[in-house]
Amino acid sequence: GGERRRVALCQLLLSQPDLLLLDEPTNHLDAESVAWLERHLDEYAGTVVFVTHDRYFLDNVAKWILEIDNGRGVPWEGNYSSWLEQKQSKMDKQNRSLDKRKAMARELDWIKLGRKARQHRNKARIAQYERLLQGISDEEREGRRMEIGIPNGPRLGDLVVRASGLFKGYGERLLIDDVNFDLPRGGIVGIIGANGAGKTTLFRMICGEEEADKGELRVGETVQLSYVSQHRDDLDDNRSVWENISGGHELMRVGRQEINSRAYVAAFGFRGSKQNQKTGSLSGGERNRVHLAKLLQSGGNLILLDEPTNDLDVETLRLLEEALEQFAGCVMVISHDRWFLDRMATHILAFEGDSQVVWFEGNYEEYERDRRQRLGGDVNQPKRLKYKPISR
């Protein structure tokens, strides 16, 4: 998918049209390909109009933003960070939804933090595990009502997930070559790399669906898994949104609590008649929200998310980030969303090609700086994914 998209983009750029229209151009592209595209668009002589939910891409490329708001197109001069600041100011003056304004304000505060302050904020999450487990205070809850709520699972022990000398291959290809990592309580791990590198295979190994060829992958006895895959095969298109999420029950168990199912479904943005809409008629982003709501209700203390941000609008992405920030547990997330990983990740597990997997303490921005120092030169040039052969 990613290679075909690169070829299509190259054909477009070589034809040098006066007006270039791009619909979600970064979907399915790895980080190197997106960096390549950003450089080319920055130097492009013509006019470029693109639709995207990729906030990192918007911040690096956009000079103007056209926001579709209640059926109207509203132009804003500047990139994503600039739009966020202008939008926040306008919403304050209009006294718009308090919850949305506060979520936007917290993202804006994060943007304004210096690099070191951002790093400290993400890493502080590990030390705050016990506070997260106790839940937010009534005072905090009053000022931070969660639109998306992820129930906390039971307390984690010292061992969450630990890999020691891990090897895994398929056929003649070695996917994972001698990987070692130890996931701390409260950690949020961003897993990055090209499609086919072995990221989902690692998730299957953690779930017990695959075994290592060599080495050891230990999952702690206190760990309760919640796995949100990128496939939405578990959704029944002929059932309503509410039925898919609640199973048709007015009361449902979410984590260790029993709550009103209509209220839970509403927390994921489906209110009123929208709850009775057939799932088959939903957009991709709406289906993703149904999928998240259905699978996050189990109350696990280790959540595995496989491309959770695909098709989600920026507002829902922001709310998902807020929910994960307050979640008292560990998260391992496969994602190409660099903004999401920058805000959330305490660690990066990078499938860098040639069967090499790197465990890095820090967020995406820190990892990228380290990668450029280690590999130098043409580090951001797109390359075909290569594997080491399996030695017999």
Strand fraction equals: 15-25%
CATH superfamily of the domain at 2-116: P-loop containing nucleotide triphosphate hydrolases
How many beta-strand runs?
A: 16
CATH domain class name of the domain at 2-116:
Alpha Beta
What is the terminal-to-terminal distance? 31 Å
The helicity comes to: 25-40%
**Shape annotation:** globular
Q: How many DSSP helices?
A: 15
Radius of gyration from the CA trace? Answer: 21 Å
Query: If classified by CATH, what would the architecture of the domain at 2-116 be?
Result: 3-Layer(aba) Sandwich
Biggest β-sheet, characterized?
Answer: 6 strands, mixed
SS-based class:
alpha/beta
**Strand numbers in spatial order across the main sheet:** 9-12-13-7-14-15
Say what the CATH topology of the domain at 2-116 is: Rossmann fold
Low-pLDDT residue spans: 136-146
Mean pLDDT: 85
Assembly level? single chain
What does this structure look like?
There is one protein chain. This protein is an alpha/beta fold and 392 residues long. The chain has a domain at 2-116: Rossmann fold. The protein contains 15 helices and 16 strands. The strands form 5 sheets. A 6-stranded mixed β-sheet has the order 9-12-13-7-14-15. A 4-stranded antiparallel β-sheet has the order 8-5-6-16, with no helix packed on it. Strands 1-2 form a two-stranded parallel sheet. It is globular and about 60 Å long. The two termini are 31 Å apart.
